[in-house]
Amino acid sequence: MNRLAKVAFGFVIATMVLAGCGASLKSSDGYNTATSSSVRTVFVALKDFTISPAVVDVPAGTVKFTAVNQGQAFHNFSVKLTDGGNRITGTANLSPGQTGSVRVRLQRGTYIGYCSEPGHESLGMKISIVVR
Ligand SMILES: [Cu+2]
After folding, report:
1. What is the pLDDT of residues 83-115, one digit of tens each?
2. How far is the CA of 73 from the centre of ligand 1 (A)?
3. How far is the CA of 75 from the centre of ligand 1 (A)?
4. How far apart are CA 4 and CA 94, in angstroms?
5. Which of 25, 71, 107, 118 has the smallest count of CB within 10 Å of its CB?
6. pLDDT at 27 over 60
7. How far is ligand 1, taken at its centre, from the CA of residue 39, in Å?
8. What CATH code would you report for 39-131?
9. If you measure from the C-alpha of residue 102 to the centroid of ligand 1, how many angstroms do you get, rounded to a whole number?
């Protein structure tokens, strides 16, 4: 087998492995099969400077977070995968007393719910979102 043929053969194997892997992920984690039509609603309260509840536990799928700002400052409820990670999504900034919602499809894992206003996360506006 010459070099070009080896490279081409390797590419075909890699493609097959990737395709197989993707298929098994979809069928094994239940993400696309269970309750895809149902939306789990989770209520969170934003305060100066906490978010409650401290831990949210939901099944994988679409989650609708409805946040009410019970504080005096502007707050939002945002979602990211890890500390230092990018904001996946979140509500708009909410005035005191205002309520806002955001829908997000979450696969299994642990996420961070937080307020993306500068400094608010480090002041305590941070919770764990556990997706099973
Ligand atoms: Cu905030």
Report:
1. 989 999 999 999 999 999 999 999 999 999 999
2. 7
3. 4
4. 59
5. 118
6. no
7. 25
8. 2.60.40.420
9. 16
